[in-house]
Q: What sequence folds into this?
């Protein structure tokens, strides 16, 4: 079997392993042979034209394969995925093999022209686009059906033959990156360009947003500190803080769009053409002809999907929201009961009992979030979305709405039903701080510690004196394949989103929230960086031009916070005292101010351009050039007449 | 001089005049010679390669020229402007000369493949793109400077040498169109496709919107009638009507986007690539190198423009708004004074005096609108916008804000300051109906009557027995060049926008407004059609994919109307009676309902897709094909390896 690709090794002497493929233990020989043949086969024969080598360890061949590609193959792949790179004249252009000499840092012998993350992305793209031709099934597995055009890798994954595909870490690069990123305590920006080179644009953009958001919160935090230090309780100061906060949050979200455009222009993803999306792996249906592509693929009626969404998912989500509110009411009953108990029998035990309800509630909230997350994933999967992007949008929407209610419902209740600002401030602080500590622990430190322990045990078995750098390839692969899989930026953004909620929804009651958020985010940068570099498998790079649906989520939150803050200010006794004669005037004034603030927000969002002027100019220049090229063609044709 | 283009006449025997160029009376010979030479010259020599003929009348040559083009030239021009036409397989594709055989109705001898409006648009585009090469000035006019790349026609227009360029009517087509459009009273839709063929997409889309909007108002009108007939005054019925109205207006605006996509897909403009915009004729500045195009052209600092906008235009607009409010206050004072006078000395004269203030106010409003319009045009022109689209947006914004306040300020004052619902209803009805009557008169009937009178006089001089069809070309051109110029759809949309305001802003007070709007719009269709066909010069076709900034304007109006209606309902005595104990509860309930309605509106706008599914599929198919074509190229290259 090994012979079948040995000829490739001679063709390219320096095989550089980029991606690891792990097949399940008992995979049949014929399947392996067929799959590897397809991977190395020429493009003309429907192959991926990549290089593959089995990983040989002390225990012999273990169904683990290393995939690489020749330099030329990678350059052609870069053209196929539509990579955008910088030209010698500093403009960004879509890479094509024929124009390769015009690109910056390009040289025929420069194998660093494409970053390792880009190479791995290209290989992933090529593997996923390895499509069945006349095979009716995966050889050796009659139950794993194929049809012309079906992605082989996706079918192998869904039928369990393929355990995982993951890109290899580059120990040396990783060491450099982690040193400049979190290795030393320093004042300064993160090395975003290096992060992007190593982990790809999606992750770099998350860290860019995290950093930007932290800096953006600093003015709020600075203004918030004197409120705590001097224990200011004046109404006008709170109003000023809230007003500043509301307008500031609009400004930072608008300015982020501009920052994001600057970053993604530099990285080339702003200009990258969207690839045509293939159906997601889990999508199923009866075979039919896709009217768009003309290909045979599973089809699923959009009306059925709509029915599932509106008749099952929507009611279920509403029920969950209701249940969450019900649990909250039970919590408040318990709280009341504990208070009564404490009043009746004052003792050490009873004062301890005061904390029990909130502990129970906190635990229940976490459990509910967890169960709901599984339910949401199941439901969204059952809705059978054709595209991964549409699946993600529906999942994010479901999870966002529930998490929002689950986290903030008790605060809303305290603020607007119980109307106890002291309790609100206290609950807000407790919720914010404990959730931050819990998150940091559960998300980074715990996995890091587990990974470390596992590492140490693994290494003891192998050779206890070796450092990371001395590990053989086989040892490295074996260690990395056991690492956890990073499931994407969803949870990280969700955490920031909820934090933004704590900071802005009740900002006029608890100005100190921004201070805690800033402190948390500074450590968050370090712990997230640690998580990415040490805890998880290296993720595949994913090109992206913006933070997608999260922009909308943050903007919605900032609109909601205008409403909540206006109501809170309206309810404060200091404002009440300003309108001694008529409560009506008070309410009307508050409503007027709220509408004014909302109007200003929308006008500001409209007036601030989404892209900085120089990026606009660069984009216009590219557009102009492509239009001119088109005109030239027409003109050349007319000249001939 | 005539000889210089006579060779072209033999090349194409059937010269069809499409566009008329009128030069000023005293234009120098050398200028005419140079200009016509540039028009007929080959593309390779920097000409437009069109055909041109002087118009010979009884009085000799009158500096009026007819422009046409050969069939081949028009097809090449269609490719240059990026026209999208229907293929034989019913898909819409960008026309290219090389793929011409795949298009529906194409035949080498079928000269109707391009509509006359399309041909005229192509000629206009070619004339406007006739650019100076090494000329430093217009020959014969040293003060009319040129620089390489400057549009010759635009310079001729700004220096007054070129009086006007306009497309010729096609008497036969026009007769057919006007017959099917407004010739007979009939129930049914307008012939939108025919209108589009004759007048182009912008005008057809306006009539499409007008028709759609009229149909969309019918449900409101039907529900509104019983309120008048049975004199319902119950609070719950008004609330129901207002709620329906508010949600309905969101639905119709969202559905319009879908209708618009269907229309413009069929017309090909949805797919048409935006052309690179040249500086507008009035734009001036010092010569510099445009960083986008690399061409020499006038440059103007964007910071200077921003300063002019924010430091001059914005304060001026605010001042005008303040002045308009001031005039309104004077009106109310006058009204009060007239009322007092009437009470003191009750007589026929005094009861007549009651009407004087409102008549004066109506006249003053019209005069203010007019003066403001000129001021706005002057200011926007002074802001020196580089692009016509940006000029238009700034002008529309200025005019919209002022007209909104001027028309609705008195109603707002009556509703929320005087709080007199009876007076509000009465003012609303008066304003709506009188403005409709005045508009119809001033906009269509008066110009029609003037035009008719002028026509009759003209024809008496020529030959009194001739009908429209028998007129010679010279007579037709002479008649059309004296007709008024249609200045675009701005005023028509503005009228609809204000009407939408009357219908929706106070819908819970005066449900009958929708009935009047429907009645007005039915006659409006006829009078606007008459105006287009009989009163004005034929306008150049303008491809467009949507109604642009008006969509935003209507959506903003529908958001404002949620606020006004909620306040109005909250103030009604019936609702007041429901909350006898606490005014607070009333206000809070109203605020809650308002926020709910706004949230529902935004969710609806988000959930309803902007394009119908089948259009989405067709667009996806085209995108897929172009991506596949790109991939094929890459693959073909890889195969060679």
A:
């Amino acid at each position: 079997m090994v012979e079948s690709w040995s000829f490739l090794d001679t063709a390219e002497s320096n095989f550089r392993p980029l991606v690891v493929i792990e097949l399940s233990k008992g995979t049949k020989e014929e399947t392996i042979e067929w799959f590897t043949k397809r991977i190395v086969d020429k493009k003309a024969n429907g192959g991926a034209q990549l290089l593959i080598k089995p990983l040989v360890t002390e225990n012999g061949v273990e169904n683990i394969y290393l995939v690489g590609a020749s330099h030329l193959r990678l350059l052609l792949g870069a053209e196929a995925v539509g990579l955008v790179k910088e030209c010698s004249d500093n403009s960004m252009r879509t890479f094509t093999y024929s124009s390769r000499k015009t690109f910056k840092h390009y040289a025929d012998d420069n194998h660093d022209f494409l970053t390792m993350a880009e190479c791995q992305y290209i290989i992933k793209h090529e593997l996923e686009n390895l499509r069945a031709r006349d095979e009716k099934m995966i050889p050796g597995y009659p139950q794993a059906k194929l049809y012309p055009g079906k992605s082989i890798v996706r079918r192998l994954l869904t039928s369990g033959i393929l355990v995982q595909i993951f890109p290899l870490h580059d120990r040396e690069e990783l060491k450099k990156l982690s040193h400049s990123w979190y290795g030393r305590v320093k004042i300064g920006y993160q090395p975003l360009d290096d992060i992007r080179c190593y982990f790809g644009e999606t992750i770099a953009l998350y860290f860019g947003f995290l950093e930007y958001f932290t800096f953006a919160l600093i003015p709020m935090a600075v203004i918030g500190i004197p409120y705590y230090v001097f224990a200011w309780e004046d109404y006008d100061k709170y109003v000023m803080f809230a007003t500043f906060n509301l307008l500031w949050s609009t400004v930072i979200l608008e300015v982020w769009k501009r920052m994001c455009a600057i970053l993604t222009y530099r990285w080339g993803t702003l200009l990258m053409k969207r690839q045509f999306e293939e159906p997601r792996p889990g999508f199923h249906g009866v075979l039919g002809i896709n009217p768009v592509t003309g290909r045979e693929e599973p089809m699923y009626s959009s009306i059925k999907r709509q029915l599932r969404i509106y008749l099952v998912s929507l009611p279920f989500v509403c029920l969950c929201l209701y249940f969450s509110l019900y649990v909250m009411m039970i919590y408040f009953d318990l709280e009341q009961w504990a208070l009564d108990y404490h009043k009746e029998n004052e003792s050490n035990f009873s004062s301890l009992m005061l904390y029990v309800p909130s502990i129970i509630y906190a635990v229940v909230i976490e459990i509910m979030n967890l169960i709901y997350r599984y339910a949401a994933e199941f439901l969204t999967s059952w809705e059978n979305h054709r595209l991964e992007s549409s699946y993600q949008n529906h999942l994010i929407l479901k999870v966002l709405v529930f998490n929002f209610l689950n986290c903030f419902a008790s605060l809303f209740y305290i603020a607007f039903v119980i109307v106890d600002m002291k309790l609100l401030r206290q609950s807000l602080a407790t919720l914010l701080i404990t959730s931050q500590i819990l998150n940091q622990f559960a998300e980074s430190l715990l996995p890091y510690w587990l990974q470390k322990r596992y590492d140490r045990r693994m290494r003891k078995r192998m050779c206890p004196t070796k450092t990371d750098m001395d590990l053989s390839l086989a040892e490295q692969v074996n260690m990395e394949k056991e690492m956890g899989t990073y499931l994407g930026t969803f949870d990280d953004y969700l955490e920031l989103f909820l934090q933004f909620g704590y900071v802005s929804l009740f900002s006029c009651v608890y100005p100190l929230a921004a201070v805690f958020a800033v402190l948390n985010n500074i450590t968050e940068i370090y712990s997230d960086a640690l998580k990415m570099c040490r805890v998880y498998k290296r993720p595949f790079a994913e090109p992206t031009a913006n933070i997608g649906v999260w922009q909308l989520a943050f903007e919605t939150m900032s609109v909601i916070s205008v409403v909540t803050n206006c109501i809170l200010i309206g309810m404060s006794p200091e404002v009440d005292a300003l309108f001694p004669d008529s409560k009506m005037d008070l309410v009307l004034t508050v409503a007027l101010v709220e509408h004014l603030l909302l109007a200003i927000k929308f006008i500001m969002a409209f007036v601030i351009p989404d892209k900085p002027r120089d990026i606009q100019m660069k984009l216009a220049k590219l557009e102009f050039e492509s239009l001119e090229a088109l005109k030239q063609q027409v003109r050349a044709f007319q000249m001939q007449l």
